[in-house]
Amino acid sequence: MVSSTIELLKEELPVNQESLVLSEDVKTGLVLVDIVNGFCTVGSGNLAPTQPDEQISGMVDESVKLARVFCEKKWPIFAFLDSHHPDIPEPPYPPHCIAGTNESKLVPALQWLENEPNATLRCKDCIDGFLGSIEKDGSNLFIDWVRTNQIKKILVVGICTDVCVLDFVCSTLSARNRGLLVPLEDVIVYSNGCATFDLPIHVANTMKDAIAHPQELMHHIGLYIAKGRGAKVVSEVSFGA
């Protein structure tokens, strides 16, 4: 019954996805959103999966593959790491990804990025990475990264599709439309490189103030809203000659 309802909703809210071929001709940057232990590694905190999760594991695998190729080609990478001060809450979420703990570190399969010269890592203490890139002097590290590298396309992967990924994508699209991100043209979301969490209704009903969050449906809705805001959504990524 649940799966048939989701399929019906997908028919009513279709997300038409393209195939993306990246080439040297157009400067492209890879953006990794919150692929940290606190969201991806089983048992690593309040918001980590409690058991192996196929969608999250697939997202990590695809993100690692892309990061490897971008580094081989010396193309720019920007990685957000959710990182919170223990005394500053982020309602409605419980404490998570506390700065200095293993939760706020990149997953083991991506920790090598810390030593890559073409990778920029940014710890953020809010859902929206675009806002989390604002420095005390008012400058924005993400905007500077786009301008410095003269990036025309960004390819976005990470977690959660409908939360941190979506908020970052929407803010970036608004900033692009305001002319703050010249020469950026396209914001591209790779569906298989994104994932979200699963909180079935029967579990949510046992928790105070929790709301249900069916994984497959919310992943689809995140992609649907991103596309509606102007992002491109792709199901395949390959590299041209």
TrEMBL record:
Entries under Gene3D superfamilies matching the protein: Isochorismatase-like
GO molecular function, one term: nicotinamidase activity
SUPFAM superfamilies in UniProt: Isochorismatase-like hydrolases
GO BP: any one term: pyridine nucleotide salvage
Alphabetical list of InterPro entries matching this protein: Isochorismatase-like_dom, Isochorismatase-like_sf, NIC1
One Pfam family it belongs to: Isochorismatase
Occurrences of domain Isochorismatase-like (ranges): 29-205
Leader sequence segment: none
Family: Belongs to the isochorismatase family.
Name of protein: Isochorismatase-like domain-containing protein
